[in-house]
Design a protein that fits this description.
heterodimer, A: 143 residues, alpha/beta, Transcription Regulator spoIIAA, 4 helices, 6 strands, B: 132 residues, alpha+beta, Heat Shock Protein 90, five-stranded antiparallel β-sheet, 5 strands
């Protein structure tokens, strides 16, 4: 879409990694939600790791979309973790009264991968990891 | 520092408004957590303007109180449908749209002063202040 900010979606093994590095407008947020679900279906990924460490604000709209993504991914047999929330963002979220229902949050990408692997049993090297196994990230969202 | 007015006429302007508020708050010396609070409030209240009234504006007013205390006042105003029941709109979880009902009550918790004036058929003005 014209003027749309592109957020990359990377596939590492059976995990989709979504690094959000810019302040997104509402259109971009909605579009990203759709793309994550499309890529889950297309690639058979079992985990979604959303990195928000560079996101300076999470309002009720973005919070709701994060919850929705987790719920929808769950129905598609995939688990979602949100990693790297800044302390100021976490404080503001709680004061705002948002719970991020159904979303697991961890401190960093390492912890996120560990959670997806150990807690949810998603192995990066499982079948479906593609010709490169888990060693290479594949950008899956080319237009 | 002078007041700034930002037109709120579409979804993209919500992001513009919160970016502007963060920049002004930073230049006034607000610490990171307060910049985040103010940017989040701006995002919530600017979205209400765009969602319910289609258009309106935000005014960001730097304040200097007696004793040299600095602050930032944000005004969100529109000529939209207005809010029939302000008390209900201020309750957590109440929404006439598809939102979470956190916008108004949540925003109030993020600022020091919060005032809402609304007249059905005339419009709505929400004024918030955060002191440094």
């Amino acid at each position: 879409m014209d003027g749309q900010q592109r957020i990359p979606i990377l596939k590492v093994g059976r995990v989709l990694i979504v690094p959000i590095q810019v302040d997104m407008d509402d259109q971009t947020v909605i579009h990203l939600q759709e793309r994550i679900l499309t890529e889950l279906e297309r690639t058979g990924a079992r985990g979604v790791l959303i990195d928000i460490s560079l996101l300076e604000m999470v309002d009720s709209f973005i919070g709701r979309v994060l919850s929705d993504v987790a719920a929808m991914a769950r129905i598609m047999d995939a688990r979602t973790v949100v990693v790297g929330m800044q302390p100021a963002v976490a404080i503001t979220l709680v004061e705002l009264g948002l719970e991020l229902r159904g979303v697991d949050t961890v401190l960093n990408v390492d912890e996120g991968i560990r959670l997806l692997r150990s807690e949810f049993g998603i192995d990066e090297d499982e079948e479906g990891a593609g010709p490169h196994g888990g060693a290479f990230a594949e950008q899956v969202n080319r237009p | 520092m002078q007041s700034r007015s930002i037109a709120l006429e579409g979804e993209h302007d919500i992001a513009v408004a919160r970016g502007e508020v963060r920049a002004v708050a930073a230049s006034l010396g607000f610490r990171l957590i307060d910049q985040t609070r103010l940017a989040t409030v701006a995002s919530e209240l600017a979205r209400n303007v765009v969602k319910y009234a289609s258009r309106g504006r935000m005014i960001a007013q730097p304040l200097a109180a007696a004793g040299g205390r600095a602050g930032l006042r944000l005004i969100f105003e529109d000529s939209g449908p207005g809010i029939p029941d302000i008390a209900a709109a201020m309750r957590d979880g109440f929404s006439t749209g598809r939102g979470l009902g956190k916008g108004l009550p949540g925003s109030k918790r993020l600022v020091d002063e919060f005032e809402i004036e609304s007249e059905v058929g005339r419009g709505t003005r929400v004024t918030v202040v955060r002191w440094l």
